[in-house]
Amino acid sequence: MNIENDLHGEFDFEQHRLKAIEQYQKIRPLFEEFAYVLKNVLTEAFNANSIKIHSIEARAKAIDSFGKKVTAQSLEQPNQPKYPHPLSDITDLAGVRVITFFPITLDLVDKIIRSEFDVIEMSDKALLLIKEEKFGYSSIHYLVRLEKNRTALLEYNRFENLIGELQVRTILQHAWAEIEHDIQYRSIDTIPSDIRRRFMSLAGMLEIADREFQAIQDEDERLRIEARQSVREGKLEKVEITPDALKAYLDNKLGPDGRMTDFSYQFTAGLLRRIGFSDFREIEECIGGYDDDHLSRILWSTRQGQITRFEYQLLAGMGENYINYHHWSKYDWFIKDRWKELDKFRQAGIEIGTYLPSAREVAEQEASADA
Asked: Which of 58, 135, 280, 347 could form a disulfide with 236, with the two C-beta atoms 3.0–4.6 Å apart?
């Protein structure tokens, strides 16, 4: 659309807006479809590459937002529109926003975007904000088209040459973006000094928080790898009891069991800590002499699931102590069922232990001394 200036007057921004909106309303459904195509391509690629993100959203630019953008003035010529040809000049008519948990995922998302789309332009908004001395959120923006091998397909050829915008940011950067609309000041020069200091502190805190979340994730992954390695090498005294380490230990000792859920390992790790176990060396001492499959068949004549068999080992190795220190010890049904199982073990010739983890043993001794 080419709207010329009236030679004898100012540019008619309102007429420019109305004509642009009229044209955009006709093609907005196409851009809405295009946005969801971009989203679906990314979603499938993330899943195929096991990339975990917080969320991904798609949208076609709202009519009101489009109309407002159309009336923007040119910085060089304020009496002229910034977008003289709105439908081609405005590049975020179709948009997708990807929000990640951690900064490191931004690099993974970047690789996916570059492998799946024709990237026309990539810009880091953080650098732009610094250059323009504005407050805001760090965000990476891409202008992309579908690759020709995709638009050659019948279901995609109507999107040929359409441009979409992809925004990629962390969840903390997104939090800033969500509240930024309520911030009235944009230029450092116009901000009162007290508010400026608070803005700077907040920006620094968010950046530090992003780095710390990333550092925590990296450290957690390092500890998981070390724990699995220690389990494989039998260095059990070095392995702290966590759900991931428990799975590694039980897979190694009792054999893997794909039926087990993450919650099952979380629950059981919490139980072990509550009972007083501090590492897997103590667990090995407690259950080392008991055959999990044999205990299971004594009670059920079948081989039960991995964690159930492990619990039978704990019961046999600790005996009454397992019942007393279990967090279900206040329930009569739990006490009765465990005693029945202990009786069946004894009848089958299983010697019941009285193992007590060192932490629990110390606590018992201190309690006796106080009494």
From this structure: 280
